[in-house]
Amino acid sequence: MSIELATPRLLLRQLMDRDTWTYTYLLVDPDTQQGVLIDPVREQLERDLALVRELGVELLYVLETHVHADHVTAAGMIRQQTGARIVYSEAAQVKAIDRAVNHGDSIAFGNFTVRVLATPGHTNGCVSYYVDGMVFSGDALLIHGCGRTDFQQGDAATLYRSVTQKLFTLPDATLVYPAHDYKGRTVSSIGEEKRWNPRLGNQRSEAEFVELMSNLNLDLPKKINEAVPANLETGISFDPKRYLHEAFSMADLHTAWQSLPEDELIVDTRSPQEYDSGHVPGAVNIPFGEEDRHVDALKEYKKIYLYCRSGRRAQTVLADLSILGLDNLACVGHSGMPEWQRAGYPVAT
Question: Where is the Rhodanese domain (predicted)?
Fold first, then answer.
């Protein structure tokens, strides 16, 4: 008798910042332990990093649904400590990010793919993220509500079309995870919101919605003057030379490897166990977290090429070594050893 094992479902952790009623979501592929974090809050940085460490997550991306006005993001600090790449909508025009996305783009981690849905209206740079029967809707669609439309280029008619033409066209069983809830609710569904949402449900017309939103008369968020400027800089004072670099692929590394001079070095930043299982011939192993011990030796090289499995650790090592004064670095920031192996390049063990 054969037993077929079902594909593991995505691991989800829903976290809350009670001061701002903000939800942060950690999504993890249980097969590969690769994950993404959605809408992190600065005050919860240590909590979120501790959870990532405890679960053994290789954090690939920080996904932001929009430029928040009620809290400062932890995205920049998380990138500093994990190498995770920061993702915003291109329309948000946020500085110093790693990837700007548009409607229909996809973001892969492990065996899962996040689909980007442009859902402007609360702000002009709002996006929702759909993956594995769940949609993380930011402030566009809340549980029995929606985001306001009276600041940050908000527009009620635009938000109406974003929700009704994009989110409400998802399957009714799709779980809705919003960026906030002020009544302690944790999750809804598209089917529930289409029927019961008092602002957008029950086939409310666009004209009715626009009139309703124009008469809310809400106070501005308390932290808007701090949060918006900070979030346009990923939550930190940012030096792009340390955290951003030109794209360098494993194919580029292979080209460099074929004629590597003595004053250049390839560094594998994975663990010793990963390195022993297969690495680029001639590469030396400096595991992520140990790079500061080798600064003086690395300064002797004209050029150093860094790689790992997915680019996360290599990118973090690049940032750390840059802070310590090295400027002779190149980094494979979007792939790693599996790509080298798939290409059929030589492997040493």
Answer: 260-349
Say yes or no to pLDDT of 6 above 60: no
4 domain residue, yes or no:
no
For the residues of 67-102, what is the DSSP string, one character each? --SSS-B-HHHHHHHH-PEEEEEGGG--SS-SEEE-
| Global pTM exceeds 0.85 | no
If asked whether residues 79 and 131 sit together in one domain, one would say: yes
Please indicate, yes or no, whether residues 114 and 195 belong to a single structural domain of this protein. Answer: yes
pLDDT computed for residue 5 by the predictor: 42
Domain extent for 305: 241-342
Dist. CA 314–CA 307, nearest whole Å: 5
Question: Is residue 205 helix, strand or coil?
Answer: coil
Residue 329's CB: how many other CB atoms inside 10 A?
Answer: 20
Tell me how far CA of residue 7 lies from CA of 100, 136, 186, in angstroms.
30, 22, 25
Q: How many domains does the chain have?
A: 2
Six-digit token string for 10: 């995505």
CATH number, domain of 291, equals 3.40.250.10
Closest to 335 (Cα-Cα) out of 266, 240, 239, 252: 252
**CATH number for the domain that contains residue 53:** 3.60.15.10
Q: Across residues 98-110, what is the average pLDDT?
A: 96
For the chain, the distance separating the N- and C-terminal CA atoms, rounded to the nearest angstrom, is 38
pLDDT at position 4? 45
Mean pLDDT over residues 92-100, rounded? 90
> pLDDT tens digits for 58-88?
999 999 999 999 999 999 999 988 889 999 9
Show the CA angle centred on residue 29, arms to residues 140 and 305, nearest 5°: 100
pLDDT of residue 3: 44
For residue 292 the two structure tokens come to: 């500061």
Record the tokens describing residue 311, joined without a space: 């680019």
pLDDT for residue 20: 93
* Residue 256 sits in the same domain as residue 226: no
Give CA–CA dist 283/348, Å, rounded.
9
